[in-house]
Amino acid sequence: MSTQDELKQQVAKAALEYIDDYDMVLGIGTGSTVNCLIDLLPSVKNRIDSVVSSSEASTERLKQLGFHVKELNNCGTLSLYIDGADEVDSHNRLIKGGGGALTREKIIANASERFVCIVDTSKQVDILGAFPLPVEVIPMARSFVGRELAKLGGQPTFREDFVTDNGNWILDVNNLKIIDPKGLETKINNIPGVVTNGLFAHRGADLTLVASASGVVVQD
Ligand code: 5RP
């Protein structure tokens, strides 16, 4: 039996194959699975010109390994973005933001030609929504947005003692029935005060690498 940490290592290693150009500007996500990938990146350093990072935590780790971290504003379209997820369905639609980096992650995913998601089997679901949906909010709008989310059938909880890299707060929303992920993503993003929500349905992954005890499978 593989432990979850071993599966994260395996899927991170499998993702290295997708870094297949030379002098690539690579988009890098956030989280424990991505940390495994970051730690392996020195082995393909000759293929990476620089990186664009989705969080201060990933930036710090990348810099410690000697990578040149660029501002997205100074790059064009990225050829590849690699990131983890909290849930993935069979259409590569995701819930992200468990680590609170959802807004920058969504920006970089949309600014990239290809988004490769890396997960272990524990993240695979038939229907998104068992994982509480993270919603980043402007602090003064927290209560209003919470009431609007409750009207949509959700039960929002304030993520205590957490401020995003953008200086905002997170509401984690339980009990949402996500039968129309794109529709719900749009609806929540249209609430004034919402910066973005953790549904990645309009721009899901192009493919997901899923690690299980029997190996890594490509879901596209
Ligand atoms: C951070 C994220 C992460 O990708 C997600 O939480 C998965 O993290 P981990 O690999 O640690 O399970 O969306 O905002």
Summarize the structure.
With 220 residues, the chain is of the alpha/beta class.
Bound molecules: ribulose-5-phosphate
By DSSP (H or I, 4+ residues per run), the number of helices equals 6
Taken as a percent bin, the fraction of beta residues is: 25-35%
Question: How many DSSP-defined strands?
Answer: 14
Q: What structural class do you assign from the helix and strand content?
A: alpha/beta
CA-based gyration radius: 17 Å
Describe this structure in words.
This protein has 220 residues and is an alpha/beta fold. Helices cover 26% and strands 29% of the residues. A 7-stranded mixed β-sheet has the order 3-2-1-4-7-13-14, with helices on both faces. Helix 2 links the parallel strand 1 and strand 2. Helix 1 crosses helix 2. The longest helix is centred in the first third of the chain and has 12 residues. It is globular and about 50 Å long. 48% of the residues are buried. The mean pLDDT is 97. Ribulose-5-phosphate binds next to helix 2 and helix 4.
